[in-house]
TrEMBL record:
Annotated organism of origin: Maledivibacter halophilus
PROSITE patterns, alphabetized: PAS (PS50112), SIGMA54_INTERACT_1 (PS00675), SIGMA54_INTERACT_3 (PS00688), SIGMA54_INTERACT_4 (PS50045)
Domain PAS: start-end pairs: 130-183
Entry keyword ATP-binding: yes
Xref: SUPFAM superfamilies: Homeodomain-like (SSF46689), P-loop containing nucleoside triphosphate hydrolases (SSF52540), PYP-like sensor domain (PAS domain) (SSF55785)
Protein name, UniProt field: Arginine utilization regulatory protein
Classification via InterPro entries: AAA+_ATPase, AAA_lid_NorR, Homeodomain-like_sf, HTH_Fis, P-loop_NTPase, PAS, PAS-like_dom_sf, PAS_fold
The keyword ATP-binding belongs to this UniProt entry's keyword annotation: yes
Amino acid sequence: MNIKYEHENIFSILSQYPDAAIEIIEYFFNSIDKGLAIIDDKNIIIKHNDSFREIFNSKTSLLGLSLQKIIPNYEQNSSQNFYFVEDLKKNLKIDSKTICVENASFTIVKVSNYYPDSNIIEKDSEVKFYKEMYENIINSIDEGIHAIDTSGKLFVYNSSIEKLEGYKASEIIGKHVTEVYNLDWKTSLLLKVLKEGKPIFDFHQSYTTTNGKWVDVMTSIVPLYSKDKIIGAAAILKDFTNFKKMAEQVLDLQEQLHNKKLNTNNQTSEKKHDTKYEILGKNKQFIESINWAKAAAATESPVLIYGETGTGKELFAQSIHSKGIRSKGPFLAINCAAIPENLLEGILFGTTKGAFTGAIDRAGLLEQANSGTLFLDEVNSMPLALQAKLLRVLENKKIRRLGAKEEISIDTRIISSCNLEPTTAIEKQMLRADLFYRLAVVYIDIPPLRQRTDDIELLSNHFIDYYNKYLKKNIQCLSKEILLAFKKFHWPGNIRQLKHTIECAMNIVTANEPYIEKCHIPKYLNIFPKLNTSISNTINNHSNASFENIHLFDQIKIEERNRIIDIIKKNKGNISKSAAELGMSRQSLQYRIKKYKLK
C-alpha cells in the first residue's frame, strides 16, 4: 500500500477516501501556524483557520466579513505584501494566490505577523543617534563649517556659518557652491581641493556672498575621503574680523603702556629684567652665555638667541635691553609662531586706513618700539616672504605701513630667537640665510637644562623660595632622593618644566613637611627608573620636541607625533596604509602631519 501511494498526488489519494478527505483537509488547514483564509471574488471571507482569527485578536468567527474591513488598505491582486493595521498596531505580511474553478474564482490568503529585522532596527537607531550627535557637534562649534560632495553641491552648512554669511542652511543645502558664491571652478578653493585632493590651511579670504554680505575669514579646506576615494571637501572658517579686533586691542594696550612709561618716566618695571635677579646659574657653559649677553647689552647690534623651548630666551632678551643704553625705551615682544601669516605683517609694519576692509591708521610694533627693542620670538616661524621685508628694514632702518606710499624712518633694535638650531632651520628653508647673518651679529647659545645639572639645586631652591612666599609655605628644599632624581632626569621642557614641577609639588606638600619628597612629584614625569613608561621614554628620546608647557597632554602629543613618524616610516610614506594602521581616517592623518610639521 505504501509503495503504491509513494509517487501519487495527495488529491488522487484522498479521492479514494471521500468520507475522510474533508476531515483531513480541515485538519491540515487548522494545523498551519500561518493565518489562512479563502475569499471570494468580492473579498468576502468564506473560510479561515484558527491562526487567522488569532492574528486579528478575534474570539469569534470572521466568516462573511470583507477582508478590507479588517485590513482597511488591502487591495486584491496588489503587488503590496506588507500592511500596517492601525487598530491592531501590527505589521502584517500577506501572500495570496487566486484559483479559478469553472466559472468562479477564489483567493487563498496567507497572513502572518511581520517583525522587521531587529538588527536593521538597531542599526537604523544607531545611525539616527550618530546623525543627531554629529549635527549637534557641528552646530555647537564656533567655526563656520560647510562641505560639498563630488558634484560640488553643499551638504553641510552649520549654524556658525549661517551667522557669518547670513544664509539659512535650508536655503543652501543641495545647491552648487557656484550658485551660492560669486565663484567658479577656477576660483573656488573648495572645488580646487576637491579636484586636487590637497588640503589648504590658514588661507585669508575676503568675499561677498550673493546676498551682498561682506565676509572676512581665515579658512582651512580639507578633502574628504572614504576608502581612499575623495567623496567631497570641507571648509572650516574663522571670523578674521574678530581676530583682527583682538590683535588691535593688544596693540592699543602696548601703545598705552609705552606712553605711560614715557609720561611718568617710571623705570621701576625695567629693573625686574635685571640679569642679577632673573637669570641664575653657575654652570660654566651657562656663565659663558651670560657673559655674551652682558657684552651684547653694551652694543647696538642685532642679537639672535638660540635655545630649546623653556630655556629662558626672552629673559635674556629682556636683560640685554634693560642693561643697555635703550633701557628707557620700550621693550616689545611678539611670538611669530602664534600669529597667522596674513595678520603678522600688519602687526609688525602697521596699517593705513583703506589698506583692507576695516583697516585704520595704526603703528606697527617696529614703529612702536622706536628708540627701544623689539623681540621676535621664534623668528624661524616667520613666513619667508616676510623675512625678506624684515631684512630690508634691518638694512635701511625704514618701514612702510600696509597701504602707505611713504616710508617711515625707525630706530629700533632687533633681538630675535630660534627654538630650532639655525643651520637646521636654514636647511629646512624655515629661515633665510641672509636674514640669519644679519640677525646673528651677536649669537647667544643657551644650553638646555640637561647640560646644567650643577644648576638644578640652585634653581630648585630659587623656585621653592618663590612659592613659599606665594603659597605661604615653609619648605626648606628638595629631599636628597628627589635632588638626585632631578639631576638624572632629561628635562625636555627645561627650566619652565622644572618650575612647573616645583609649583605642583608645593601645592601638594603640607605645612608641616620640610622637604619635597617623592610622593609630591607628579607621576606623569616618571623620574624614577622603576616607574618608566613608553611615554617618558618617548619624551626623553626626543629632547628637541616643542614643549610650550610640559604636562600630561603635551606628553601625549609627543607620543602621538613619534608614533605617527614610526608608522609612516614603516609604511614607506604610504599615507593610506599608515592611517589604517593608526586607526584614523586619511584626512585625520593629513591634518596631524600638518599640525606636527612632519613635512
